[in-house]
Model the fold of this input.
Amino acid sequence: MLQVLAPSGERLPEPQLDPWLQDLDGADGAAVLAGLYEDMVVIRRIDAEATALQRQGELALWPPLLGQEAAQIGSGRALRQDDFVFSSYRENGVAYCRGVDLSQILRVWRGNASSGWDPFAINMATPQIIIGAQTLHAVGYAMGIQFDGADAAAVAYFGDGATSEGDVNEAMVFAASYQAPAIFFCQNNHWAISEPVSLQSHITLAERAGGFGIPHLRVDGNDVLAVLAATRIALDRARQGGGPSFIEAVTYRMGPHTTADDPTRYRDANELEDWAAKDPIARLERHLEATGVLDDALRQRVADKADEVAAVVRAGVISMPEPEALDVFKHVYAEPNPWLDRQEDHYRRYLDQFDHSGATAGATTEGGRR
Amino acid sequence: MATMTFARAINAGLRRAMEADPKVLLMGEDIGSLGGVFRITDGLQKDFGAHRVLDTPLAESGIIGTAVGLAYRGYRPVCEIQFDGFIYPAFDQIVSQVAKLHYRTQGLVKVPLTIRVPFGGGIGSPEHHSESPEAYFTHTSGLRVISVSNPQDAYTMIQQAIACDDPVLYFEPKRRYHDRGDVDESVDPATALSLGSAQVLTEGRDVTLVTYGPLVKTALDVAVAAGDEGVSVEVIDLRSLSPVDYPVVEASVRKTGRLVITHEAGQNGGLGAEIAASITERCFHYLEHAPVRVTGFDIPYPYSKLESHHLPDLDRILDGVDRAMGRANSLSNLPGADD
Done:
């Protein structure tokens, strides 16, 4: 497993990755490191705020990313705007890197919409719930990049559990066959809800990619610099026409699978303690303290930014407009559909029987038949 | 006007769609140098290149899933599923991704995908090669499902399907691939009868006979045979299975008062059940008899020596017409039968 930052925060020599981190040693190095630190702190704060909102009944559900900040920021910040991301439902840190409107990120989890952003505005598909299905979309998109003669890449994010799905395996077959500029970014967070990674594979997940003829790197996923370097390597390969890559970022989901989950039923408290010692933010903090980058002023600036972002998230959720009843029929088809038009017409007539005050939401409970 | 086989008509339609739009590309197993197992894509890879006619790995979910990604990138992929029974590995991608992406993204992502499926029986194939899975897809919102029955429609509707911004399942009756018919290649798909329209093929007074795909030819034979027995049958080719063009069927049933629906797929939960229910709701007071279904049995598709028993044929459909007419039929002496 490749590592640049030890859990102590010490920078280790890593011949394979170091050439891809030269900007950290240049004049702007401190600024780059400070940026990564800020991003990780901010997304941890978004995560905590969303968890709180769920506990307060403002969100139906939330999938926390606690512990996976380095994997998401390290990879997300390596991307270019014309790259395209196809993710699972936990990659809110990546969405943050893509520039998502934060007030929109929680719409899905509040139940106000099936998607939270315009995929083409930030070049990131909306979160995929079906495990692994998005990896094929990424490979198809990458094939399109290739046909267009562009030098962008498509990145598929998925977890350790997804590697057992047929789609992920088919995606690797297609990517290798066409040498598509696709990156398979696996966050091995050790748990697929209650199922340990040992149930998915008896070899490392990265090694599996080798069986498909896909070059692979296994990095410490709690080491933001190792993740950044590995993603840069894969992106460079994709842009040079070198085909797909697979990155296994070995990390740990410190929270539950979602807020509906109880990890104490299936995992040992000691395991969590071991991983807490490898916390990705604490590690970077130690490094930045040791190198003099992190001082009180930076600490305060980052804390203020996190507060500000959290406030935006909270305000966005609480002020979100309720959808209209007839929105349920919208966008099923791109072109007119008489079957659905008829159902909509009948439902409109049904709603019209009730007092108009109750017609927009929950007519059956709030209305009153005339 | 040229005379060509059904298979050739689809090929010509694909060719024209590819000429018209450089974003149209074909994907599937064996569709390149072989031209597909039914030769529907014959010569297209040679003329358009391997990046427009892609031989894919043998992975149906992979074909459809990568096509979704290509649609994100602005392409209009046409996927060939080699045989009806092979569509199931792609089921998740079709019903959870292809069908729902437009809804999921509030209309921001369009999936103008065409999925060609050679379907139906009657060619003596082994299992998994003769199925009629259309009801799985008509039950799925977000998909359009069509089935073609003649070379002209095959030519026109493949172009319409590709031009459609919704995903379209295009069911091709494989036992009709070698039937010949006139095809007017100058027809403009934009002004031709729309993809969602049914078509009355023969006018009749007594019974409305609704079908699609492989059984349209049989239904036309039924109309002739019934005519010889003094029953006037109006044959409707649905063309679109989702949505069904109910106004055309309704108008016919209001005139005839009797409805027979026939398809190769099994009866339970099939399209015939849906049409019978919908027409009963819409035309109850016009009906002289309960709608009658003549369908394949609710069995796995049988081995080929038995398939002639499973598939509705001229005589079984005529028997259904007799039931709708209240004439002597196979169920006349059934205890408790109302006819």
In short: The first helix of chain A runs from residue 22 to 25. The interface with chain B takes residues 84, 86, 113-115, 118-120, 125-126, 130, 133, 135-145, 147-148, 154, 166-167, 170-171, 173-174, 177, 330-335, 337-340 of chain A (CB under 8 Å). Chain A has a mean pLDDT of 94.
